[in-house]
Amino acid sequence: MVAIFVILTIVALITADSIVQWAEAKKAQQARRPALQPLGSLRPAFAFAGVSVPKGVFVDAGHTWVELNVSGRARVGLDDFVQRAIGRIDAVELPQAGQEIRRGEKLFAIRQGERTAVFTAPIDGEISSVNDTLARHPEAIKTDPYEQGWVCALNPKNLARNLRQLSIAEEALAWLNKEVQKFQAFIAARPFETMALGQVLQDGGQLTDGVLELMDEETWHRFTSEFLHPRVVEPAPEEKA
């Protein structure tokens, strides 16, 4: 009887010791895990690290870019920042070749499920060609926004006047980086319930690529209004008498 009591006591002590060790190990593991930071303290987002614009490419405040070539035509596409913010692109609504377009008018749109984001023309001109590849492979904008992901080409009009509204080189890159900071503040201001925090915040509060995919409809519409707002259409220059 005494022997059985001793054995049970030893088993109980071993069990208690195992529970204590398990609890301490779990506590240590939690201490090593990075805590999710409040949205208001987001650091620069790794999804936007290295946001770029090639040399010789102009950028418009509506997040389209313009590249001039020796033929006199101008290619237009979607800039690096906005394709990272939007994330998945399911379809591209291309303009029609031969269409006359004014700066600030709707040029093309992208769709993500039932959502649409409209992009306006950065310059005046006549659309000479469109990138039909995007109709079959809209993801090309994501993989190569400044080359394979171009959207359309224009024969420019009023080019000198329009280019004064755009930025290039260091000025363009500095502006894109400011847009990254503005976007962080934009996301930080959104209510917690509008996002899946476990997916949006990683590695101590950094934004993931395509964060807008995880946001609600109101956030999507606010983004398109604040970042892709249509540019004011400029009046045609007065003809000389």
Explained architecture:
- There is one protein chain.
- With 241 residues, this protein is of the alpha+beta class.
- It has one domain: Beta Barrel (OB fold (Dihydrolipoamide Acetyltransferase, E2P)).
- The strands form 3 sheets. Strands 5-8-9-3-2-1-10 form a 7-stranded antiparallel beta sheet. Strands 4-6-7 form a 3-stranded antiparallel beta sheet.
- The N and C termini lie far apart (121 Å).
- 36% of the residues lie in helices and 20% in strands.
- Strand 6 and strand 7 form a beta hairpin.
- It has 8 helices and 12 strands.
The total beta strand count reads: 12
CATH homologous superfamily classification: RNA polymerase II/Efflux pump adaptor protein, barrel-sandwich hybrid domain
User: What spatial form do the alpha-carbon principal axes imply?
Assistant: globular
CATH class: Mainly Beta
Helix-strand pattern, N to C? HEEEHEEEEEHHEHEHHEEH
**Continuous helix count:** 8
Task: Write the SSE topology.
Layout: H1 2-32, E1 58-59, E2 64-68, E3 74-78, H2 80-86, E4 91-93, E5 100-101, E6 106-112, E7 115-120, E8 124-130, H3 133-136, H4 140-143, E9 152-157, H5 159-163, E10 167-168, H6 169-188, H7 197-200, E11 201-202, E12 206-207, H8 217-227
Antiparallel strand pairs: 1-2, 1-10, 2-3, 3-9, 4-6, 5-8, 6-7, 8-9, 11-12
